[in-house]
Amino acid sequence: MGLSETLSTFFGFEEHDTDLRTEILAGVTTFLTMSYIVVVNPAILTDQPGDGGFTDGISLANHSPGEVQQMLAVVTILAASVAIFVMAFYANRPFAQAPGLGLNAFFAFTVTGAMGIPWETALAAVFVEGLVFILLTSVGAREYVISLFPAPVKFSVGTGIGLFLAIIGLQAMGIVAPDEATMIAMGDLAQDPVAVLSVVGLLFTFALYARGIPGAIVFGIIGTTIAGWALTAAGVTPPGVLAPESLPGAQYDISPLAGAFIEGFANVEAFSFALVVFTFFFVDFFDTAGTLTGVSQVAGFLDDEGNLPDADKPLMADAIGTTVGSMLGTSTVTTFVESATGVEAGGRTGMTAFVVGVLFLLSLAIVPLAAAIPQYASHIALVVVAVIMFANVTDIQWDDLTHAIPAGLTIIVMPFTYSIAYGIAAGIVSYPIVKSAVGEYDEIHVGQWVLAAAFVLYFFVRTGGILTGAV
Question: Where does this protein reside within or beyond the cell (predicted)?
Fold first, then answer.
């Protein structure tokens, strides 16, 4: 039996009405649309200087931010590859995983930033919840809880995450800026070269994407980066504005990050650490569930009730990826919405995921370029992905207020509180309340009341000063 026949039999090409050529093309398509994460994830997780001493990510005393970014690029690739290969050979689904956008922002800006928790402890918390997820997934508990998600919340999570990512991206690009009167306002576009080039780069990327060019986001990031370096070389702007003043040497040694989660367990007060894990658990659980549901929705894999058949297997790939990723030094791994592009190209089996995993490993060769890409260029990806994720909003029954209210709250609360978990919580808490208000008690599952009560507790823990006081 030849290689093609072996792969066909293993992945079930005939059963899924596909072939090897189609699966390879789908894998290449998915990789091109999501490979930006190799640059974007390190950019978000790395603590950048110039924040007035405010820490919002990972920093190493004896390494520059550029070196840390390269380490995180290697870790990103390895963590993604592990999860993707589990998806390919265990779940046999055409989904691809990597450290998730939104979850990495929560890690950097909320946990290590606003909450002031050491990044090693944050990694330890991710490790613990990864193990918990493996356990819960193995017994089917995660799939059951996800099935309790109210439909309007399922279909609105993607849009809420999109808005959250858009704000992060637009701030990094200088297009929006903090304002004392309105909280957020337009940046100084005409005076800020970063904002000007960001706008041009963003529009260029959207133009490529609208033309249906595979890898449009990658080409947009690279094109914007080249323009920034060219303007710097021409003397239009001084070094350090549109391009880094200097670049570190190639950095493939990830030993300062790998295993750092173990240090996070040292001298940790049990109650405070439990609360950190609790926070990560809620954010990761429902964000991963929402993203996987959103991807499956785009791919057409959901059943009539909005559930993904055999969801435990792709969830296991996420759980293992998260656990391994935390051991290596990165935030939670999740399924990427860009996986839908491979599905649209015909990918239907784990062979598509396998191709993506191989391409991620091959991308180790370009790790030194991670430090050469400015943050404003890498964050173009966040805004483009945000717009893509808005598509799910059309599946919400806006003419039914018992759906519109939970969905609307999910979408609104998420970006304005800078928290994915808060948005999901708002939707889940409001659903049984509005359903009860109109007398539709038979449409409320007892488990949805339990979820609502759990999220009320979550709100109390996060906003009542308990967590801040404990750590």
Answer: Cell membrane
